[in-house]
Amino acid sequence: MSDKHIAKEIASKLYDLDVKVYESTVSTMGKVFPAGRELSIKHMAQQIEQDKKHFLKDETTLISNMINTIEDNAKVKEYRAELDEIRKMIDEYIPVTVLPDSFLSNISNVKNRFAENNNMIICIGREYGSGGHEIGYRLAERLNISYYDNEIIKMASEHFNANIKVVSDHDEKAGKESFFDRNPLNIFGFSANDSLFFAQSAYIQEIASKGNAVIMGRCSDVVLEHAGIPRLSIFIGAPFEDRVEHEMACSKLPKDKAMTLVHKKDKERKAYYNYYTSRHWGHSDNYDLCINTACYGIDGTVDILEKMVKLAYGHKEI
Known about the structure:
alpha/beta; elongated
């Protein structure tokens, strides 16, 4: 049978099913094919030949949606069976789509991304007030692996032989302050922010090379990418109002001050990430997963991330 005859047969069956479904539905959506049978079938057959995949998918979806509005279960079952038969005809009529080689290669790379000898490394970026710190800590506890956030500041303060508060003041800050500031972090002609970033980056690579770990922020995803160290990259966020409420509950700040703090910290983290990576902080293209904690809560988010980690590192015993 020629493609033209097959297209006409599919069009005929779609039209006849549409009529039956419309007569049985209590929906006001109307027929998918409002014209008469002969004209509708002719028009459909032409469209099927021109754009097989998209036209047929759209029309079968519309009929399926109408079937969902029918109250008679027996008729629903009958019409579903007819629609399934039509879809089988369509599958035989439309050749299987072959994905581009580049896309298939990407899938292959993802499947083989983590080898047996790779450490389990999870890098977490986070909006301020989204619960990222607590989520990272609980995830590390669940997985029984190391956790690094403020610990990186302590390591840097020892490196510079500097007060931990001095180091904290420059943590996750973009490097545009004066080179001539009197600061123990100003070394080798670099600003304090730049010096701290380089030191922290070295520690992050060392941490990732030694064992399994959750690493919070500090451009760790990009630092490890440049070092050729496989890792999962996650971004945790939530709507601004939810994060303000979370900060108010945690710090007991009044709303105006909590709003100012959340906005300030987000601005700093964005500037830091964009400055040192030349990427866009929080944009989904940069991460394996972006998740809204307002939808799942702290423990719910940890549950999701734990499953993701176990799926990615399926070869490892946790």
